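Saturday, quiet lab. Running sequence design on the structure tokens for the scaffold JK sent over.
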């Protein structure tokens, strides 16, 4: 047996005032998107905002369904909308935020595994890293430079072509 170690790198900001203007705007658009999420079952509202290389901003929010797991997370709603509307444009940055009327979310939460894999697909599709900003309702904000920091052993298309 050989033991390996894996390290990730991320930046952490005390609050959104430390972000540059573009990132603050993107996070605010994610916060607005979270307000109109359809989350009657979980009462957990998630918003995502994507900045495309062409400067367009696409937003999405979680959409729940009584026939769980038929709903969709905010990140994938935004990513798939971007792919449908601007299929040739790479995603530069994605901001994700969440809130709940039941409790205060003061820590940045990470995308679920399915959303991480969807982000990975778009990085591979456009051969371009996607910067990810993660925030709760208030407090610290985390930033990673690529989905590989959150999903180091991602499933890749070339794995399907082996054999």
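Result came back. Writing it out in full:
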């Amino acid at each position: 047996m050989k033991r390996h170690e894996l390290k990730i790198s991320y930046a952490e900001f005390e609050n959104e005032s430390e972000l540059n203007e573009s990132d603050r705007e993107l996070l605010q658009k994610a916060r607005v998107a979270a307000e109109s999420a359809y989350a009657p079952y979980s009462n957990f509202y998630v918003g995502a905002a994507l900045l495309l290389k062409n400067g367009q901003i696409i937003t999405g929010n979680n959409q729940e369904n009584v026939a769980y797991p038929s709903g969709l997370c905010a990140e994938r709603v935004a990513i798939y909308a971007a792919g449908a509307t601007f299929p040739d444009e790479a995603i530069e940055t994605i901001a994700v935020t969440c809130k709940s009327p039941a409790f205060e979310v003061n820590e940045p939460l990470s995308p679920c595994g399915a959303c991480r894999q969807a982000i990975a697909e778009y990085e591979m599709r456009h051969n371009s890293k996607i910067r990810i900003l993660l925030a709760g309702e208030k407090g610290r904000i985390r930033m990673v430079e690529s989905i590989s920091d959150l999903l180091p052993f991602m499933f890749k298309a070339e794995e399907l072509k082996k054999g």
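Notes for JK: The helical segments are 21-35, 74-85, 113-126. Residues 23-150 form a domain with the Cytidine Deaminase; domain 2 fold (CATH 3.40.140.10). Ask whether to fix the surface positions before the next round.
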